[in-house]
Amino acid sequence: xxxxxxxxxxxxxxxxxxxxxxxxxxxxxxxxxxxxxxxxxxxxxxxxxxxxxxxxxxxxxxxxxxxxxxxxxxxxxxxxxxxxxxxxxxxxxxxxxxxxxxxxxxxxxxxxxxxxxxxxxxxxxxxxxxxxxxxxxxxxxxxxxxxxxxxxxxxxxxxxxxxxxxxxxxxxxxxxxxxxxxxxxxxxxxxxxxxxxxxxxxxxxxxxxxxxxxxxxxxxxxxxxxxxxxxxxxxxxxxxxxxxxxxxxxxxxxxxxxxxxxxxxxxxxxxxxxxxxxxxxxxxxxxxxxxxxxxxxxxxxxxxxxxxxxxxxxxxxxxxxxxxxx
Length: 326
Fold this sequence. Notes:
Elements: H1 2-14, H2 28-37, H3 61-89, H4 103-120, H5 131-136, H6 142-157, H7 159-162, H8 167-181, H9 193-209, H10 212-236, H11 263-269, E1 288-289, E2 295-296, H12 307-314, H13 319-325
Antiparallel strand pairs: 1-2
Helix pairs in contact: 1-8, 3-10, 9-10
């Protein structure tokens, strides 16, 4: 609530025109924006959307293919970086699978939304880092997203009001969210340059290029070059040339304990009809950190109590004796 109250307060201060911080200066652009703001309620139907699409790409097939591949990998990397950073921020990442429950559905919804949005001629309907504001307020379920979607629908009819919220009213919110998310930097292995440099490039290039995809690409490529070069040098020299402090390198493997496939896909391969539901015998909580930094760990399974022990417990045996037998 405090974040929303701050946005509203700054917006209300910025709307009057005779102030030095007004969002509607006495310019041609400011006058146009103020005229739209005075409508308060307005609805503008979308017209001539599919008409402007050119479906015959035979004349520019090469350019279309290049644009298609570019937008594809940029969207995949942007969506991946946003979804997993938000899942980590919310403490929903399962350390066993390095995945979060429902990730496949999240990717499908993102793909469907961005495809429909492009046909409708609107900005990308995809996952944005602004979701961190809701998570920082305690939202971590689908109910939060549904409420946000309902509010977006209502905002269609009040477009003059919401379109007039100045960027400096919402920018502070992203600074707060960024500060909260920056706590994850302490988990980076800064002791070994092969891990520290790719992480630093990823963090630094994202804001300078305004792209999550470019940051991820720079981090992945630098990691491959640095650590691949170290591996080649060690192999060529027969192990005689060693990199200092390599023993501090953070180990990794593609052989995850839970496998590389999403949990729902594993359940489908096992013939589970209700593959979208998590069985009761699976871990119900994902280990990680909550927003306030509290560790989340799986509850340890206690061994089953034998029939004799149950009889002893029912006959009034001491708690200490029962714990000793466990």
